[in-house]
Amino acid sequence: MMVDWFYVVAGVVVVGQVVLGCCCLCSAALVIATLAVLRFVVIPAECDATLWFYEKFGHPVEKLKGQVVWITGASSGIGAALAVRLAKAGVRLVISARSTQGLEEVKRLCVATGGVKDEDVLVLSLDMTHYHLHQSSFDTVISHFGQLDILVCNAGRSQRASWVDIDTEVDKALFDVNVFSLISLSRIAVRYFFQRGRGHVAVTSSTAGKLGAPQSASYTASKHALHGYFETLRTEHGGGGVNISMICPGPVKSGLFTRCFTDKLDKKIEKERKDQRMISSERCAELFAITLANTLSEVWISLQPVLSFYYIHQYFPAIMKWVMAMIPKEFIMKLRDGHNVMQSQVKQEKAE
Ligand SMILES: NC(=O)c1ccc[n+]([C@@H]2O[C@H](COP(=O)([O-])OP(=O)(O)OC[C@H]3O[C@@H](n4cnc5c(N)ncnc54)[C@H](OP(=O)(O)O)[C@@H]3O)[C@@H](O)[C@H]2O)c1
Q: Which of 71, 78, 259, 275 best tests ligand 1's pocket when mutated (most atoms within 8 Å of CB)?
């Protein structure tokens, strides 16, 4: 359950004030404001409180040593960093993406950690949209390692485009990479996990899987669809021995932006993303690996203020809609693109 101590304590303060009948509102507001400054300004937050707790007190990543983990989208960014982190912990790996060259470099980095040997990392080039190769790729994994413990569905592409301008062909292509291909491969793995009596599917969602990310309608819809598919698997087969982890990162430094879909299939993104206020792929991968080691069902990985948006949206959806309607759209886009909004504000004020 996504519980942040701030909201719990704030709730207790309000209830306490009401029950005790003290001069309620003013003192409650003061305590909550102090807590809010502590939680969101003084203490740097990078993830939800549950994940934070498990990083401090849960199983270490090394618990996964010897297991076989297949990561799709492992040639760069979060997937590549996750492969290296897991290799360091002695996890045997299958790494997939389209770029064989990128994968070979990631394999070299994995072996260089000293946690695994050459034969412990299988480079399996795969375009996820080539559905006809999913079963044979899966068979290759099983014949190489004899088992699969965790499938990490991480391959994906983002988008920047205005809602009204997006061609339906783009919607379809984006869903192909981000949803249908991933579900096709997961179905093969989950059938195997059911037969085996255990297994784990981890899915890289996004803030866009929880909220409506501006200029990314098809991408947002694709990440929401993943929650729909996997929450249904959870309710259909809860307790069946197959764990599901939904990992929802906010802005992360990676190659994602440069490979964005736009509103037309043949149109490339023109802007550059200014990686100012983002979590590094390595830090995201560390928290991702902790999620795997502790089989957490859903995690949020992001800096503030985006992290707070997750909480407000989860617990106060009506307020979130109101807040979103109030905040200028340019500000939301800056947050989305990982700009340091506080710094830009100061610069703007100085210029004035
Ligand atoms: N970076 C962020 O801010 C952020 C935030 C939230 C969620 N995410 C999610 O994190 C995941 C990883 O993204 P990233 O940030 O690490 O970006 P990235 O560096 O661009 O990595 C994307 C990976 O997906 C692979 N890929 C793309 N299309 C593919 C296809 N058709 N078949 C197989 N592999 C394919 C890419 O490899 P090839 O090009 O070699 O195939 C690459 O390895 C994505 O699902 C993304 O939506 C990212």
A: 78
Among 219, 229, 311, 315, the one annotated catalytic: 219
pTM recorded for the entire structure:
0.89
Q: Yes or no: say if 7 and 315 are a contact pair by the CB < 8 Å rule.
A: yes
What is residue 65's DSSP assignment?
T
CA dihedral 110, 115, 119, 125 (to 10 degrees): -30
What whole-number distance in Å separates Cα of residue 231 and Cα of residue 227?
A: 6
Domains of the chain: 1-43 (no CATH), 49-307 (3.40.50.720)
The pLDDT tens digits along the chain (352 residues) read 555 667 777 777 777 777 766 556 676 677 776 666 666 655 568 999 899 999 999 999 999 999 999 999 999 999 999 999 999 999 999 999 999 999 999 999 999 999 999 999 999 999 999 999 999 999 999 999 999 999 999 999 999 999 999 999 999 999 999 999 999 999 999 999 999 999 999 999 999 999 999 899 999 999 999 999 999 999 998 777 899 999 999 999 998 988 999 999 999 887 776 657 799 999 999 999 999 999 999 999 999 888 888 888 888 888 888 888 888 888 888 777 777 655 544 444 444 4
* Cβ 245 under 6 angstroms from ligand 1: no
